[in-house]
Amino acid sequence: MSEGLHVRRLVTGDRSRALEYLRARPDENLSLIDYACRLGGTLGPGEVPSQLYAAFEGERIEAIVALRPSVVFSSGMTDNAQSVLMPLVMRVPSGLIKSEHKLVNSIWSALEAAGREAVIDRVEIAYRLRPEAILPADPELPGVARPAREEDLEDLIHAARASLWEEDRPDPSEGDPHGFERWVRGRLPRARVVSENGRIVFVAYADVRSGEGWLVQGVYTWPDFRRRGFARRGMDSVVREAFACGAAHVQLAVVDGNERALNLYEALGFEAFSELRTILFH
Predict the structure, then answer these.
(1) CB 252 within 8 A of CB 265
(2) Which of 26, 49, 72, 228 is most buried, taking the most CB atoms under 10 A from its CB?
């Protein structure tokens, strides 16, 4: 307890109240908005149920943390709210933290002191694009952009594994190939690809698709097709689809120092709006 704050797990009946709180800062809380929308919902293949807790002052929500699928803290969290939520975070044996850089610094200090070890620890820059900032489409860009289809599954599995290899991250498919395939298949409806002469050369996932915004993750271009305009074709198609569906913005995160990606997104009109710290730990 801290200054009257109390904590409890959010359930289906809390969905509307949680969304009202999170939508006060929709860009910064987009992942949590998606998690809250899924409270009590039907899970797709490979999906993990949302596990959300809130710090309350009386009946008013002061802060929210997700423990699953990832550890994510709501934006603008006070020290008091963090202190009452931290005991829950300390029980998480392994997972992925992704939140505002300064907030993660203190959270990770406590987890590291408790014996957790980082597999990946990096700073990412969150970028967003609003409809009024989108640039004219370039008709000369190569490739054909489209939603992924069932016959693309093998290519999507390869891309998911290859992106892990490039980051020196563990490859879950080595120990559980069928489970990994189910996970990729579950993301198939969110996948967008670019093909060239029938070959898939680019993939990205619209993992969050809401009116508040679309969150794009898992962007990967086959090495032989980089710096040739295929990624720009793919991302241009994704953002135009998002805005056609009524999204207020599109956002994504880029590893700090990845100049090739930064240049691509800035050329598309994206602007930086937040600094994140991402830690994969066990």
Answers:
(1) yes
(2) 72
- How does 154-183 read in b/e, with b if 16+ C-beta sit within 10 Å? ebbbbbbbeeeeeeeeeeebeeeeeebbeb
Other beta carbons within 10 Å of 64: 25
The rounded Cα 186 to chain-centroid distance in angstroms is 16
With vertex at residue 219, the alpha carbon angle to CA 26 and CA 192, rounded to the nearest 5 degrees, is: 85
Please name each of the domains of the chain with its CATH number. 5-116 (3.40.630), 131-274 (3.40.630.30)
Burial classification of residue 23, based on how many CB atoms lie within 10 Å of its CB (0-12 exposed, 13-18 middle, 19 or more buried):
middle
**Cα dihedral 133→99→169→200 (10° resolution):** -20
Structure tokens at 21: 């709180």
* Whole-prediction pTM: 0.93
pLDDT per residue as tens digits for the range 203-241: 999 999 999 999 999 999 999 999 999 999 999 999 999
| Secondary structure element (H or E) that encloses residue 67, with its range | strand 60-68
Task: Return d(Cα 5, Cα 201) in angstroms, integer.
Answer: 51
